[in-house]
Amino acid sequence: MTKTKPTIQVCATEHKANIAREARRVTSYDVAIVAGVSQSAVSRCFKPGASVSKSTHARVMKAAALLDYIPNAAARSLITRRSNMVAVLITNKSNLYYPELLAELSQQLSTLGKRVLLFPLAREADVDRVLNDVWQFQVDGVIVAARMSDEHVAEFERRGMPLVLFNRTLRNQSVNTVTCDHLEAGRTLVSRLAAAGHRRFGIIGGTTDTTVAGERRRGACERLAELGLPPPVIVPGEYDYDSGATGLKALIEEMGGVPDVILCGSDVMAIGCLDCARHELGIDVPGQLSVAGFDAVEPSNWLSYNLTTLRQPMPKMAAAAANLLCAVIDSRETLVERRLFSAQFIDGATARLHPKPPATATNTASAIGTRAPVAIM
Fold it and tell me: For residue 220, what pLDDT is reported?
C-alpha cells in the first residue's frame, strides 16, 4: 500500500514544533525542507529578479509563511557583500523641510531595495565626528546634506564609498550632486521684489557654516548690483524662529528704520520675523514691510502667514538623489553627475509684488512715515 505524502501544511506544523523544542530561529534551510526544494532555490525566491519557476516560488512562499520565516538581512549581506543600507547625514537645525526630505528619501530608497540609516548633525561642522560612525556600519553608500571638505571627499574616494551631496556643492571637487539652484533663487527673489518697487533690502541669513546660505546671499547681492540698487544689510541667523525676530530688530536698528523688504534664509525665520513685525512692533506687512522666506514648508501656506517664498522641488530632488546613488552603487562608475533643479516662486501675501501707484500728497506722507524708525523694546 502506497504511503500518502504529507501535505506542506503537515510538514510545516511538525517542523515548527521541532524548531520550538530546539529553541532556535527558522532558517532558509528549514524552509527548503518543508517546501521540498534546495536551499539555493529558497534564496533565489527572496532575491528580486532571480530566475525561479512559478510553482517553486509558490511552494517556497507558502512554506515560509507557515514557518513565520523572515530572511536574515545580515546573513544575506555576507553573501551579496551589500548591506542594502544607505547612510543619510543631515543637520537637525530647526528647518521644517528636513522631515519632508527624510520621508521622500526613505520612500524613494525603499522602492530601490535600500533602507535609510540616519546620522543627525547638531551643526554642519560635525561631519568629522559622524563619519567615524558611518564607516562602522558598512553601508552601501552615503547621501550628505551637510558641508563637506576636500579632505572628507578624498576619504570617500579612498574607501571606494559611493557619495551623493544633497543641496550642497563643492567648487573644487568633482562629486555627484543633486541640488537646488540657490544662486539663481536669490537672484529671482530680488528681481521680483525690485520690479515691484523695493529698493532697501535687508537679509536675515543662515549660519556661516552652510554653503546654501552663502549661495542665496551671493545671488541676491549680485542681482542688486546689476540693478544699480544699494547692497543689502545682512545679519546672521540660525534658521530658527527666534532668529527671525532678532534679525528684524537688528536690521531696523542698523538701517535706521524699516527696510522695504527682508529676505529670510528659511521660512521658519520668515515666520518669526512676521510675528515680531505684526504683533510686537506693530509693522504693517506687506504695506510697510515685505517679508520673503525660502523652502515653502507647510506652515508657510497656513492662512495666518500665506508667506511669499520659494519652493524647492523636494520629491524630484529626493528621487534624483536616490536613483543617482543606487546607480553608482550598482555600476561603481566614476562618471560624475550634477543635477540642478530650479526653485518655484510662491507669490503669497507677505510681499508687495506690484509697483506702487504714482505718489500723491496723501500717499507720499504715508510713504515717508514708513521710513521712520520703529522703537524696539
Answer: 96
